[in-house]
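Write out this protein's structure.
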Amino acid sequence: MRKNIGGVLFLAAMTVSMAVSQEQVATISPQKPKVGDEIVITYNLASKAANLRNVKEITAEVLVMRDGEMPSLQEIPMKKSDKLWKGSFKLSDQKARVMLLRFSSGEMKDDNGENSWDVLVYGSNSQPLKGAHLQRASLLQRGAIIDFKVAKDMEGAKAELAKERELYPDNWVATTTSWSLLMREKPGDETKAAIKGELEQLYGAHKDDEEAVAGLLNWFEQTGQKERADDIRRSAVAANPKGKIAESKRQSEIFAERDGAKRLELLEQFLADFPQQGQMLENYQMMRINFLIQAQQIDKAATLLESMAKKDGGLYNELAWSLIEKGEQLEKAVGWAKKGVGLLRNPDPATKPPYFSAVQWKKGLETQLGFTLDTYAFGLAKMGKDQEAEKAYEEAYALTKGGQPEINERVVECYVKNGKYSKAMATAVECVRKGKHSDKLVEQYKAAYIKAKGSEKGFDEALNEAKNLAKIDLRKEILKDRVNKPAIDFALKSLDGKTVRLSELKGKVVVVDFWATWCGPCTASFPFLQQVCEKYKANPNVVILTLNTWERVTGAEREALVKKFMEENKYTFPVLYDEGFVEKYGVEGIPTKFIIDKKGMIQFKSIGFMGGPKMIDEMTMQIEMLLDDNFYSSMN
């Protein structure tokens, strides 16, 4: 059962230490916190569920979900008194709507079993502020925000939306969010028809509110009323050329444009017509720099970057890489990379995103520093400065923990150039063992081996030994994350018009991959999924199904979009049109793959796309394990 602080975790600040329940891990007071209140947080070691024991310090991390803005994180140092850790802060953010709570101590954390405690923010009338229930609904629907996790609960999300609409009938966002849930659960003409009637009423009530109308236009399009949406948009832009609807229309045009030069032109004209401020201005400046780099206007991008108050070391890396990769203007590019390295080593505290903890920010900077050092080293190597490059490469490799195959191959290559054959071989073996190697790295490994040993005799055996050890490690990793839960049956229409029922595929190993055409990681993974498909196309006991979901268009338009995508990319794996099973399978983000055994049990689940070769190796091993009749599967 989910624990909401607002409902069950409360005590007066003056009596917390006397009255904390033995079973309660965390408490917050007052019971109904308001903006301006001093918030007192306790962590109770007397509770059996508390897992931060025998630690020297604890920090309470409070993620404040804000109305219409990005969340902000409060890090509150706790002080220990007997069995209680206590800390406090003043809630001063006028946009605060929900507070999410967890506790950390170094690398350890207590987030209530990936179900962070939460509490709504109240007004002076003792009712949750407008948007509070909406924010909680969004949280329950997604199951996470930033890296704060909660138990995903679609029914709970619906209940929160109902409360929001009851308290604040004018909150049109709560209504459209309800429609989104309905469309995901029951896509189709019947749902669209139900939404249409309510949409017309909502538009009538908010037609003088440009922000609301801008949000509703998408719903006219989703319910098959594109001409009506175009008419409303055209009239609104004519009446107010600098209004919200005009701004939204221009933003859409920027992102719809595929030509880089035209997209840059549209962005620059947009910024001239719709001046931005604060964080939005910074975001658009960074976008403009990226567009300038893509358009090969490197010097103009550098001038803009230099003019920014908050200078981003990662953007200097992008500038440098764009030239170093082509071997152009190396001295200038290496200088930019070096500046990026300096900024990342000594970052401006003002550049820390408000929703990152100090630890998260530090880790992110270290990774970015690793990438930038690699760029710097790559430039030095192209200038023939291999000794200097080696030092930078070594640090890049350490900071990225040997997890980037391209960096790894450059490190090994540099060692070979500098005659460090033993280091080259040791690093290469380590990368092969981790499954973080490329064909080029293997070539460099072989070159180092021949130089060190005098011939290639024994190389294949050494390489295969490393690969076999990698397979053993990968198998252990795979089994550690085994799911072993029954797969939910579905009967869905395929791209060729047939109906595919999962339960009819028992006795086969089935891959189910949820995806959408707009999802970059999904489409990036598909060339590698195609390779897996080719590998098993002659095996009748392996079935690969890709379930198209969460598309931004529906009906015939969706089917035409997916068909065109598959034909253009020449993919041959089957596509099914999902009808709400993405929610029933508890998918939090796409791509998400499930691999189901012969008995209809989900054995493995993977989220996202972390690189093609590893994906192929992992899927192949998972499929082979499940094809083996000795693999144990249980309904228990």
